[in-house]
Amino acid sequence: MKILVTGGLGFIGSHTVVELQNEGFNVIAIDNLSNSSIAVLDGIERITGKKPLFENIDLRDKSAVKNFFSIYQDISGVIHFAASKAVGESVENPLLYYENNINSLVYLLQELQKKPEAHFIFSSSCTVYGQAQNMPITENAPIQTAMSPYGNTKQIGEEIITDVAKVTNINSILLRYFNPIGAHPSAEIGELPLGVPQNLVPFITQTAFGLREKLSVFGNDYPTSDGTAIRDYIHVVDLAKAHVIALQRLLKKQNSEKVETFNLGTGTGSSVLEVITAFEKVSNQKLNYQIVGRREGDVIEAYANTDKANTVLGWKAQFTLEEALASAWKWEMKIRSK
Predict the structure, then answer these.
(1) Cβ count within 10 A of residue 131
(2) Is 54 helix (H, G, I), strand (E, B) or coil?
(3) Of the candidates 16, 231, 256, 1, which has an alpha carbon nearest to the alpha carbon of residue 122?
(4) Residues near 335 by Cβ (< 8 Å), separated by ≥ 6?
(5) DSSP label at residue 44
(6) What CA–CA distance (Å, rounded) separates 72 from 182?
(7) Dihedral sign for Cα atoms in the order 163, 164, 165, 171
(8) pLDDT band at residue 338, thresholds of 50, 70 and 90?
(9) Mapping DSSP to helix (H, G, I), strand (E, B) and coil, where does residue 171 land?
(10) How far is CA 172 from CA 70, 134, 158, in A?
(11) Strand residue runs (E) in the chain
(12) Rounded Cα–Cα distance for residues 276 and 220 (Å)
């Protein structure tokens, strides 16, 4: 079967392409290379022995999306990652996020609704919960007012998909994931942010390698055990495998509703300082970090209840926090040694 992966050369997208190809799917990757590199294709090929088809398309270009689907008419499913994803940047540049994350989704769905049957996996986020009242967070937790334009685009995206599914032959699974980290065990692909990293772990690894002078810890006055914010950090390979399982569920018509929702995380919350300590242990590096003020858009804590994904999908995260951090460090050292 031919599967389209948008944002297919990005962090999560590239790892998902690997897992899809490992399961025998034929993959077409779309990416506009705004936050990724064409060299990722070679990494995917070194891992799987096969290079996916690739199209350099900006999904904000409606005519380009339309043209793509006129050429590739035999696509069995779509996994949609392509989006801008940094909370802080979205606060500073909200229109970029609304244009990129919403328009691209609409243009994809406009083409998919023309098909007699379509299967759509949406890359959503735990940010849709805002600051949830209860931990761990279940799929039934109320959708709170978004704390950032990024989070709002994920909420709006879910609403659009739900509305469209009611009146079309599109079946969808919304995967709300927590904090993806790590790299493929081969160190052939990993997280490669362009410019200053917006996420904790690549900033940690770049600081440890000496690319950054120091790591900023945003706030130590949160009502948590050590005062720093708590997140659920999930290995990207575990996350990628969940996407393949979700896609297979749709293709086999095992879904119980037109739109299903699953949390993807480990079920364990770790504070920023705990992540730093764990990284120092696995890397034998001492991190230079400083406490600074809180960052706008950040919630206090967020970690998942994964019971639904465990039982319904038959999926469970396998990697530990230390294993994920070790893989991220292995990747950082490899790319800097070139």
Answers:
(1) 12
(2) strand
(3) 16
(4) 190, 192
(5) H
(6) 33
(7) negative
(8) low
(9) strand
(10) 22, 27, 10
(11) 2-6, 26-31, 53-56, 75-80, 118-125, 170-177, 179-181, 215-218, 230-231, 233-235, 259-264, 270-271, 289-292, 301-302
(12) 14
Give the pLDDT confidence score for residue 196 in this predicted structure: 87
Residue type, 234: I
Token couple for 174: 């919304």
Label the pairing between strands 170-177 and 118-125.
Answer: parallel
Q: Check if the beta carbon of residue 212 is closer than 8 Å to that of residue 167.
A: no
Burial of 310 by CB count in 10 Å (0-12 exposed, 13-18 middle, 19+ buried)?
A: middle
Residue 270 near residue 135 (C-beta atoms within 8 A): no
Cα–Cα distance between 187 and 197 in angstroms, integer? 19
pLDDT digit string (tens) for 78-128?
Answer: 999 999 988 888 999 999 999 999 999 999 999 999 999 999 999 999 999
Kindly list the catalytic residues.
150
* CA distances from residue 141 to 205, 211, 246 in whole angstroms, order as listed: 33, 40, 21
Which tokens go with 195?
């410019």
Other CB atoms within a 10 A radius of the CB of residue 281 amount to 12
Our CA angle for 316, 243, 10, nearest 5°, is 120
Which tokens go with 108? 């994809």
Report residue 136 as tokens.
């761990």
How far is residue 278's CA from residue 232's CA, in Å, rounded to a whole number? 14
Tens of pLDDT, residue by residue over 234-269, are: 999 999 999 999 999 999 999 999 999 999 999 999
pLDDT score recorded for residue 145: 87
Can you read off the two tokens belonging to residue 86?
A: 């940094």
Angle between the 62-71 and 104-112 helix axes, to the nearest 10 degrees?
A: 30
Look-up of token digits 């709006």: 156
157: left (phi over 0), alpha (psi -120 to 50) or beta: alpha
Beta strand 230-231 with 179-181 is unpaired
Q: b/e per residue, 234-246, with b = 16+ CB within 10 A? A: bbbbbbbbbbbbb
C-alpha count within 13 angstroms, C-beta hemisphere, residue 3: 32
Secondary structure of residue 2 in the 3-state scheme = strand
